[in-house]
Amino acid sequence: MTITPAPLFHRLCPRQPDTIIRFDGREIEAISGESLITALLGAGLTTGRSEFDHKPRAGFCLMGACQDCTVWTRDGRRLRACTVEVVPGLDLCSLPKQEITLT
């Protein structure tokens, strides 16, 4: 028997996705104007892992006061997923861009 994990977020009033965003290379259907954390949780994703115990994290306060839902843009900007609206073309990562120095 295969158990499929349920999404971490359940919409009370379902709406049709109208755009695609990318998170860690994965395409996600989303609704323009909704919060990024809503789109990620609705897709069954978390925003990253705890820096202390490496367990998945998905936001704590959901109002921009903590940093538990931090995500990064491909150009290295840090965003809080709970305060950013979905716009077409978003391309985000759960980890910051790592600079590689060759010696």
Describe the structure.
- This protein has one helix spanning 36-42, and strands at 19-23, 26-30, 48-49, 56-57, 70-73, 78-80, 91-93.
- The protein is mainly β and 103 residues long.
- The chain has one domain: 2Fe-2S iron-sulphur cluster binding domain, sarcosine oxidase, alpha subunit, N-terminal domain (Ubiquitin-like (UB roll), Roll), CATH 3.10.20.440.
- The strands form 2 sheets. It has a 5-stranded mixed sheet with strand order 2-1-7-5-6, covered by helices on one side. A two-stranded antiparallel sheet has the order 3-4.
- It is globular, with a radius of gyration of 14 Å.
- The N and C termini lie far apart (50 Å).
- The model has no long low-confidence stretch (mean pLDDT 84).
- This is NAD(FAD)-dependent dehydrogenase.
Keywords for this entry:
103 residues, mainly beta, Ubiquitin-like (UB roll), five-stranded mixed sheet, two-stranded antiparallel sheet, 7 strands
Secondary structure: elements and pairs:
Layout: E1 19-23, E2 26-30, H1 36-42, E3 48-49, E4 56-57, E5 70-73, E6 78-80, E7 91-93
Parallel strand pairs: 1-7
Antiparallel strand pairs: 1-2, 3-4, 5-6, 5-7
Tally of helical runs: 1
- Computed over alpha carbons, the radius of gyration is 14 Å
CATH-defined topology? Ubiquitin-like (UB roll)
Overall shape: globular
**Structure class:** mainly beta
Strands of the widest sheet, in order across it, are: 2-1-7-5-6
| Euclidean distance between termini CA atoms | 50 Å
User: Roughly how much helix do the residues carry, as a percent range?
Assistant: under 10%
Q: How many distinct folded domains?
A: 1
Number of strands: 7
Q: From N to C, what is the helix and strand string?
A: EEHEEEEE
Mean pLDDT: 84
> CATH class, anyone?
Alpha Beta
Largest β sheet strand count, sense and barrel closure: 5 strands, mixed
The CATH architecture: Roll
Beta-strand share of residues: 15-25%
